[in-house]
Amino acid sequence: MTLPDGVDWPEFQPGWVWLVGAGPGDPGLLTLHAVNALRQADVIVHDALVDPRILAWARPDAELLFAGKRGGKPSPRQKDISLTLVELARRGLRVLRLKGGDPFVFGRGGEEGQTLVQHGVPLRVVPGITAGIGGLAYAGIPATHRDVNQSITFLTGHDQTGEAPGALDWDAIARGSQVIVMYMAMKHLDRIARRLIAAGRDPDEPVAIVTRATLPDQFVLETRLARAAEDARAAGVEPPAIVCVGRVVLLRQALEWAEGVAPRNLDPLGLGRPVEER
């Protein structure tokens, strides 16, 4: 891939670490700054969710180091990954830390960045499209819609211990979050749903679960809050997945563009008037 002319592309200096977001999956969603990093990096430390087609854009002589994590499977420790970045940079290498989605959105890029700073390693951050926005868009679900929500809450479905986050005020989230988008929530989805319903959330509220987001085999399960976990098990849905709770899920009936099918419902919100009149 040739980068466009007329742009002062940053030079990747030896001894630097660039924390780069690879986006939710589709290689076409990679930023040009990310491509520039791939073209210059000596070594690429990448996550499991980085599409192999993206890695194919690296320099032919670049070293690829796998640092992927999968829930319930043996994975590198975060501390070891961070210190590996420090070690590689101190060898004078151009180190690209390539992470799925955005490095600063539930990607632990902030922790890695802190470690680099503490060891005197210079860094650059290249944002990426996070799955909680890009994945929903490919599912035909807008993260915000004027007729539905003026706010959105992003949260993780587990904390440092692997359990459902105990520090979150679930009652406040249930009451105040018009749309909830959850990362890494499949393991505790039943518990989270029951907690939200107990705090006043409608058991019949629409839910979408998106797996393999933005990829050709993307799968979207449409369900309701009270039966989301049960339906996910029945459908064989496995993580990683994005879970969206809220009425914006209904808009998939009209905006299911990636599936190439005709709209199922031109007025899924039941507003009874054309969009331009709202």
Automatic annotation (TrEMBL):
Residues 17-228 form the Tetrapyrrole methylase domain. Its EC number is 2.1.1.107. Pfam families: TP_methylase. One of its GO terms (biological process) is cobalamin biosynthetic process. Signal peptide: none annotated. Belongs to the precorrin methyltransferase family. This is uroporphyrinogen-III C-methyltransferase.
